[in-house]
Amino acid sequence: MQDYNSRLSNPASRKFETFSYLPAMSTEEIRKQVAYIVSRGWNPAIEHIEPAYLMDSYWYMWKLPMFGETDVDRILAECEACHQANPDNHVRLIGYDNLSQSQGASMVIYRGRTV
Q1: C-alpha closest to that of 94 among 64, 114, 73
Q2: What are the tens digits of pLDDT across the range 57-86?
C-alpha cells in the first residue's frame, strides 16, 4: 500500500475527497464525465475555492446552477470562465440529482496554485 504524504500543516500536500488521489483527468475524460452528468439529467453547477481553504465544507458557487443545460461545450466553457476569473482557485463541477435531491457527481476541473 502506498503512503500519501498529505499533511494539514503543508497546504501543498493536502488531498481532498477520494478521487483527489487519482491522476488528473485528460480533456477527453473530463468531457466524458460532463456528458455523463448531462445524460443522467442532472443539473450542473460550478464551485470554486482558494487552495488554502479546500478542506472547508463550503465552496463559492459560480453563478446559479445551470438548470436543464444539456450542451457539454457550454458547461465546459462556463468552467473555463470560472477558472479565468479565479485562476488561483480550485474549480469543481457538480451534478445535482433532482430525484434524490443530492449531488450525483462532483469533480475538480481545475486545480489552483498551492502556497
Answers
A1: 64
A2: 789 999 999 999 999 999 999 999 999 999
